[in-house]
Write a structure and sequence with these properties.
Largest sheet: 8 strands, antiparallel
Number of strands: 19
Helix content: 25-40%
CATH architecture of the largest domain: 2-Layer Sandwich
Number of helices: 12
Distance between the termini: 29 Å
Radius of gyration: 22 Å
Length: 402
């Protein structure tokens, strides 16, 4: 350890006591574990003063998204793990960023409510990490994206300034909506310490079905019919694997409405067969993140979902599996030699997909020479300007986007 590093390590230890330790080895930097928003503020002010880079850490389930540089300090929010307030009559709650998603679900379920989201790795993922990565799943079809569910938050800027945006009621429209800006920022603009959510009642009449086909295109017409119908679809998820495709459908309507029967007739008219199943799990999306796989997040128009899912099977030299949402978001897992996977990503980004499609790399082999996010020059200029306003010293999560 050189003298300058030893100096600020000693100063940090004296100032924050047992809230500071080594992340693993000296080469991996320090691990800071604040107990509340106030201490987060003091730690960021310390880091800003000494020009030390900081990466916020929750459950660690999405730290690889966007890669980024190894920081001087990992800021763990594990001790900020409480549900602060749940005024269930108002259908809102306030929760600390280090609370695990599964714990939040358990607390809200006592009053028959939930945050209408099904994020990846919910047993380990934390509220702050889910919001910072803008992780959403199949429930987005029914309830909208994460930005529609966050109504306010508390955050700490890079210089230690504590700020609050939004409020604790759904109809709060005063001021700039910084919560939407922070959602999906991957810890590059500020550290989220508390989040206010709007809630929904837990569904009471779920019916779950699977429709199978040899390829996804055979299910495209059915997907369009369901989207254009009055069926109360909770989930429309297309699973594409080599040689097979499955459309997972979850309805939420009272049995007296006869929506299951209507769906069966729609499936029959398409020349397909339907199977009712007893359960549905979003864990299948998490299984795409195998250690030996590159995982992409691809956005297309909803009208291109079926053909896009089939297109992934045409990538030469790699084995692809994908899970596509009917609103046009795809998670694609590709396994194979690094050069073949890199070539496949290049093809997807070079016109193989429909115009306007986006391709982001969430997980990649270190040997792959690819950027995580392709950002248009006009958007990149704006993003850099916003980053400079929030974090002029570039201490928060350096290297994530730029």
């Amino acid at each position: 350890m050189n003298s300058s590093v030893a100096s600020w390590v000693l100063e940090a230890s004296e100032q924050f006591g047992d809230a500071i330790s080594f992340a693993g080895t000296e080469a991996e930097g320090l691990l800071a574990s604040p107990v509340d928003t106030s201490q987060v503020s003091k730690m960021l002010a310390f880091a800003s003063q000494h020009r030390l880079s900081v990466v916020p850490v929750g459950g660690g389930t999405k730290q690889q998204w966007g890669r980024g540089a190894v920081p001087h300090i990992y800021l763990s929010l594990a001790r900020l793990d409480g549900v602060i307030e749940h005024p269930w009559q108002d259908l809102t709650c306030t929760v600390q960023a280090g609370c695990s998603w599964s714990r939040l679900e358990q607390v809200l379920a006592r009053h028959g409510q939930f945050v209408a989201l099904d994020p990846l790795f919910s047993d380990r993922a934390t509220v702050g990490g889910v919001v910072a990565s803008n992780d959403s799943g199949a429930l987005r079809l029914r309830y909208g994206g994460l930005r529609d569910l966050v109504i306010g938050m508390s955050l700490v800027l890079a210089d230690g300034t504590i700020a609050r945006t939004g409020g604790k009621v759904v109809k709060n429209v005063a001021g700039y909506d910084l919560a939407k800006l922070l959602t999906g920022s991957l810890g590059t603009l500020a550290v989220i310490t508390e989040v206010n959510f709007r809630l929904h009642s837990l569904p009471q009449h779920l019916q779950r079905f699977i429709v199978r086909a040899t390829d996804a295109s055979a299910l495209s017409s059915l997907l369009a019919s369901i989207r254009g119908s009055h069926l109360l679809a909770q989930v429309l998820e297309l699973v594409r694997q080599p040689g097979s495709a499955r459309l997972k459908i979850v309805l939420d309507a009272h049995p007296a409405a006869g929506q299951g029967e209507l769906l069966s007739r729609m499936v029959s008219q398409e020349g397909l067969t339907i199977e009712e199943v007893s359960g549905y799990s979003g864990a299948e999306r998490g299984q795409l993140f195998r250690a030996d796989a590159a995982v992409l997040k691809i956005g297309t128009l909803p009208t291109h979902v079926g053909e896009t899912a089939d297109l992934f099977q045409k990538l030469s030299g790699v084995e692809a599996e994908s899970i596509s949402q009917s609103h046009g978001l795809h998670l694609v897992s590709m396994r194979g030699p690094s050069d073949k996977v890199t070539e496949a990503i290049h093809r997807l980004r070079s016109g193989m997909l429909h115009p306007g499609a986006t391709v982001s790399i969430l997980q990649a082999n270190p040997e792959m020479d690819t950027v995580a996010f392709e950002i248009a020059p006009s958007a990149l200029k704006l993003m850099r300007a916003v980053k400079h306003q929030f974090d002029p010293g570039n201490i928060l999560s350096p290297g994530k986007f730029f």
